[in-house]
Design goal:
Elements lengths: L1 E8 L2 E11 L5 E11 L6 E3 L1 H9 L12 E3 H6 L1 E4 L1 H13 L1 H8 L4 H14 L6 H6 L11 H10 L2 H13 L6 E10 L21 E9 L5 E8 L8 H12 L5 E4 L6 H8 L8 E5 L5 H10 L9 E4 L2 E11 L5 E8 L1 H24 L1 H4 L3 H6 E5 L7 E5 L1 H8 L4 E6 L5 H9 L2 H12 L11 H27 L8 H9 L2 E5 L2 E4 L4 H9 L8
Parallel strand pairs: 1-5, 7-10, 10-11
Antiparallel strand pairs: 1-2, 2-3, 3-4, 6-18, 7-8, 8-9, 11-17, 12-13, 13-14, 14-17, 15-16, 18-19
Length: 533
């Protein structure tokens, strides 16, 4: 939009018509053209005749020109310019998907602060202590100061009942019945003051204690639905019952199918899911480890007959052999048992293993003494002293170990109590990676690679803000993927592109900078109306 600016030059004050634009580097610039001056005696505006003629052609009478439309150079120097475009997108996304409403209902006194912190995480990805600097240059909800001390107070004061109320309202906003992928990850920490930070299996392979974060993500919506924090020493299998119980307590009982990998498998968990001990049944799909005799039995029963064209299914262009049988799990329940075999995968595993063992044997033949204490060599090779050999040792391959490793190569066994079709079950199981991708964004795109807090309450607060940020990132990722925006931008580049759209406040008047062609394309992809004053 255009607006008038008064500029003093020597003893005279001239009136210019200014219009904002962006140069080829995306930097804000301004075009000005003189349209008149200020009468030094009366202080009134005196416009050029050609400018008045232009106004007349546009239907504007000179008597309708209001003095409050004038800004002096001093006014502009005192004005504030803030980034607007990215926060505008976050707000529109959160209003549309029900996130704002859920936050307002659950945390009415401080929901804007938590939402703004989540927006900062997505935009900057830096530690929360720098949020105040970002907020000074960014249009947002009126949250006042978000200094490091204020942020600490917010994280510490997040009420558990408010957090759980949000999960309930958030899940209620999604009426579609969808498969919920459940998985767990590690969050490392240096803190010795957080009670739940313990040593355990670190999924990032870091030599640090951790907490475990269990999350549910909708496979269709691709949105995080619920999360629970556990002590770092807990194994996946021990968290399932508590995770589902807390999820139902917060969200109510709605039909849903929980999709899990083999880390959550145990006979006790399957009995719980099936509703044994007078409990209520849960729909589920889970992969079985081959440490389970039930899974080995299924492979053995199908090994001779599964590899035929009649048993072939194609999942995302990848051929598999598949057989489904209704098997008795216990005296009260039967489960759909889906057995899959990939000859290509089995062949690849065999070739890789043979190559690995061959290289180990070559090394052991050359330097047998150095390989005596090598764990991999001991696993696959037998190294014995022998006076008949020049090296003083004989080296042989443990064929029984290779056979054991290859026995289940290329095989997968899934069981479910409500999915009877093998093709559907495999498609649903493969879509489980939405939760793994959510974890990757959580750790790599926002400040949650380390906890960087020093109390249990602050940890819960920060992970809750991270959950909100994950919702925003999931929505952005979904739209970018659907419209092919990743061909041109990373998520960070898209956010930075929108952040270049700015607003300026001059004398209480809010002026929006022009929307560029690229920004317009992005907003249209998100089905968001263009921002206006």
């Amino acid at each position: 939009m255009s607006y008038e600016v008064i500029q003093k030059v020597g003893r005279h004050q001239y009136i210019y018509l200014a219009e904002g634009y962006r140069n080829e580097n995306g930097q804000p610039r301004q075009k000005r053209r003189p349209i008149g001056k200020i009468d030094p005696v009366t202080g009134q505006k005196v416009y050029k005749p050609e400018y008045l003629a232009q106004l007349h052609r546009n239907g504007v009478q000179s008597g309708n020109l209001e003095p409050e439309g004038l800004f002096s150079a001093e006014d502009i120097r005192k004005s504030s310019v803030r980034s607007y475009g990215s926060f505008y997108l976050y707000r529109k996304i959160a209003e549309r998907n029900g996130m704002v409403r859920a936050l307002r209902e659950a945390l009415p006194a401080c929901w804007t602060e938590y939402f703004t912190l989540a927006c900062y995480m997505v935009s900057a990805g830096d530690p929360l202590m720098y949020c105040e600097d970002w907020l000074k240059d960014t249009e947002s909800y009126p949250v006042g100061s978000l200094s490091s001390q204020r942020i600490s107070e917010l994280l510490l004061s997040l009420p558990p009942q408010g957090r759980e109320a949000f999960y309930g309202s958030w899940y209620a906003a999604h009426n579609d019945v969808e498969y919920l992928a459940l998985d767990i990850t590690s969050e490392s920490s240096y803190s010795e003051l957080i009670e739940d930070v313990e040593w355990g299996y670190n999924r990032d392979h870091e030599q640090l204690p951790q907490v475990n974060l269990c999350m549910m993500v909708g496979e269709t919506s691709r949105l995080p639905i619920h999360q629970t924090v556990y002590a770092g020493s807990h194994k996946d299998v021990r968290t399932l019952v508590t995770s589902l119980s807390r999820f139902e307590a917060a969200t109510g009982k709605r039909p849903a199918t929980i999709v899990m990998d083999k880390g959550f498998f145990s006979a006790k968990n399957i009995n719980f899911l099936l509703g044994d001990s007078d409990g209520e049944a849960h729909n589920f799909l889970i992969s079985m480890p081959f440490t389970c005799a039930f899974a080995k039995k299924q492979v053995e029963s199908e090994r001779k007959d599964i590899d035929c064209v009649e048993n072939t299914i194609v999942v995302n262009g990848y051929p598999l052999r598949a057989v489904t049988k209704l098997r008795a799990w216990n005296k009260d329940h039967k489960v759909y048992t889906h057995i899959y075999y990939s000859a290509k995968k089995a062949s690849g595993i065999r070739e890789d293993l043979y190559a690995k063992v061959a290289l180990l044997k070559q090394r052991a033949d050359a330097e047998p003494e150095k390989c005596l204490d090598d764990g991999e060599c001991r696993k696959y090779l037998i190294i014995r002293r022998s006076e008949k050999q020049a090296s003083g040792y004989t080296v042989s391959i443990r064929s029984d170990v290779l056979e054991k490793v290859l026995y289940t190569a290329g095989w997968v066994v899934l069981i479910s109590n409500n999915i009877p079709d093998a093709l559907q079950a495999m498609c649903v199981y493969r879509d489980k990676d939405v939760v793994e991708k959510s974890f990757l964004r959580l750790k790599n795109s926002i400040d949650l690679g380390r906890l960087r807090v020093h109390s249990d309450n602050a940890m819960q607060g920060k992970l809750f803000v991270g959950f909100l940020a994950s919702i925003l990132m999931a929505e952005i990722n979904k739209t970018m993927d659907r419209h092919g925006l990743y061909k041109k931008y990373t998520m960070k580049e898209l956010v930075n592109l929108l952040a270049k759209l700015r607003v300026q406040d001059i004398n209480g008047r809010r002026i929006l900078y022009p929307v560029s062609k690229e920004q317009r394309i992005v907003y249209e992809a998100f089905d968001v109306e263009l921002p206006t004053e």
